[in-house]
Amino acid sequence: MTSTLPPSNSTRATRVIRGRILHFLRDPQFHDDGYEYWEDGALVVTDGRIAAAGNYATLAPTLPADAELIDHRGKLIVPGFIDTHIHYPQTDIIASPSPGLLHWLDTYTFPEERRFSEPSYARAVADFFTDELLRNGTTSALVWSTVHATSADALFAASEARNLRMITGKVMMDRNCPDFLRDTAETGARDSADLLSRWHNKGRLAYAITPRFAPTSSEAQLAACGELARAHPDAFIQTHVAENRDEVKWVAELFPDARSYLDVYDRYGLLRPGAFYGHAIYLDPDDRRRLADSGAAVAHCPTSNLFLGSGFYDFHQSDAHRLNVTLATDVGGGTSFSMFRTMNAAHKVARMGGYHLTALRMFYLATRAAAEAMGWADRIGSFDVGCEADFIVLDPDATPLIARRSSRSETLEEQLFAFAMLGDDRVIEDVYVMGKAVGEREGESVGKAVDKAPDNAPDNAPDNAGAREYGLSAMS
Ligand code: GUN
Ligand code: ZN
Questions:
Q1: Which of 26, 66, 277, 403 could form a disulfide bond with 241, CB atoms 3.0-4.6 angstroms apart?
Q2: Could you tell me if 45 and 105 lie in one domain?
Q3: Nearest residue (CA) to ligand 1, atom 3
């Protein structure tokens, strides 16, 4: 099926991006028609939004005469990646050697996060961080700031300057942490409410209520988080849960009345759609049922779980309960900004549990699944008509090895799997935000831009939407 708007006589700027177009409609793990793929496809972008996506030959006759054609033929174009759990203040301590989570927090993380009380320091890191996300093809993220309100201001400002759809929140923690990073139940709630009033739903930005994890929040602070959540039903929530065995034991000691670690958050009203739980490794069946019923999501962080030796996410159990699982880097516990490296690790973590995580599923998790879990499927994560045109151009010939493997790929799954196992930032050829290439200046051409309107004559390319297995080697 080709999705399209009626032919346009509009004089507004329309861009046509030609290439191999892939996006997801629903989870390909459970639906054979979970995706659409056009081998000679086109995205039609008007005013920064998707006006149509489909077969190039079908769309060409519908285009306004003054449409600008950008030619990415041979490249794969997918929605920009969405990272659902990443700590921007940990950018500069990524890859710090440590025996595990609690030591790593004390030794590297907390001293670095202290520096974000200084607004100019925070802004400099936020600028580098957002550029590094884009270099890796990540166009939206659910980001952690530090306990300092100014750190969230810096990330919001850096995102606004790049017109990115981004979410962050100031960390709340009022116990079991160094004094220099401690707020109180009152100041944490007040600063969060103030940030929320200034940034939530401002342009493409949104706010997340961000208690660090149960061990660093008093009951009073968790209650304040719950109150804030109730007062702002569309605000996001993010925290960590059941990442590490020692941490789980510690929570059981700190909250003896709670049925489980997850139950601590549930008691304070923090389980709901738009709430993202990082890690979620050590859950029991009741926890998984409750997570699924609540509509909250899991941010699975495989490079972090391997690096910190935390454990293996259980995909069998996750699917059995139909959890809203998404993919995340968790930099700096995670070891890469790249969603390809994250897919690589996710696949291997799943393998360790005897589960085969397909590349199609991983691309879905990194795009539409995250958008759905955010309640933003009408805005990002796919090429549905009306969505904001954030997309990335992937080069199957990015390196000599990837080129050789791509040339042998006989199915879409094989090509995506090659990207997932071998790929990193080198695969990202171009990144578009709201229809504009990153770094593009007004009036500048991108891709292999062609000045004239597209040739309306259909070519031989078949419309392969929904093709389950597709021969890609034929088309390069
Ligand atoms: N648990 C509490 N804080 C953190 C953090 O910064 N990173 C990770 N991976 N786990 C946490
Ligand atoms: Zn984290």
A1: 277
A2: no
A3: 212
Supply the angle between the helices 185-199 and 149-161 in degrees, to the nearest 10: 20
Residues 178 and 47 in one domain: no
Residues 205 and 116 in one domain: yes
E strands in 112-180:
138-144, 165-169, 171-172
Q: 244 with 329, same domain?
A: yes
pTM of the predicted model as reported, rounded to 2 decimal places: 0.93
pLDDT tens for the 476 residues of the chain, in order: 344 444 444 445 899 999 999 999 999 999 999 999 999 999 999 999 999 999 999 999 999 999 999 999 999 999 999 999 999 999 999 999 999 898 999 999 999 999 999 999 999 999 999 999 999 999 999 999 999 999 999 999 999 999 999 999 999 999 999 999 999 999 999 999 999 999 999 999 999 999 999 999 999 999 999 999 999 999 999 999 999 999 999 999 999 999 999 999 999 999 999 999 999 999 999 999 999 999 999 999 999 999 999 999 999 999 999 999 999 999 999 999 999 999 999 999 999 999 999 999 999 999 999 999 999 999 999 999 999 999 999 999 999 999 999 999 999 999 999 999 999 999 999 999 999 999 886 666 665 555 444 454 344 333 333 332 322 222 22
**241 CA distance to ligand 2 middle (Å):** 10
Ligand 1 geometric centre to CA of 213 (Å): 8
Tell me the CA–centroid distance for residue 331 and ligand 2, in Å.
7
Pocket test for ligand 1, best of 91, 96, 107, 109 (most atoms within 8 A of CB): 109
For the stretch 410-413, contacts whose Cβ atoms lie closer than 8 Å and that sit 24 or more positions apart, written own/partner, are: 410/471, 410/472, 410/473, 411/469, 411/470, 411/471, 411/472, 412/22, 412/37, 412/360, 412/467, 412/469, 412/470, 412/472, 413/358, 413/359, 413/360, 413/469
Give yes or no: residues 188 and 310 share one domain.
yes
Q: Are residues 181 and 255 in the same domain?
A: yes
Distance 239 CA to ligand 1 centre (A): 9
- State how many domains the chain has: 2
- Whether 302 and 188 map to the same domain: the answer is yes
One domain, residues 22 and 102: no
Nearest CA to ligand 1 atom 9: 333
Distant-in-sequence, close-in-space partners of 116: CB < 8 Å, separation ≥ 6: 89, 122, 125, 145, 146, 148, 150, 151, 154
Residue 409 falls inside a structural domain: yes
Which of 374, 407, 434 terminates a domain? The answer is 374
Single residue among 344, 374, 404 that ends a domain in this structure: 374
User: Does any domain span residue 51?
Assistant: yes
Which residues line the pocket of ligand 1, CB cutoff 6 A? 87, 101, 105, 109, 212-213, 240, 243, 304, 330, 333
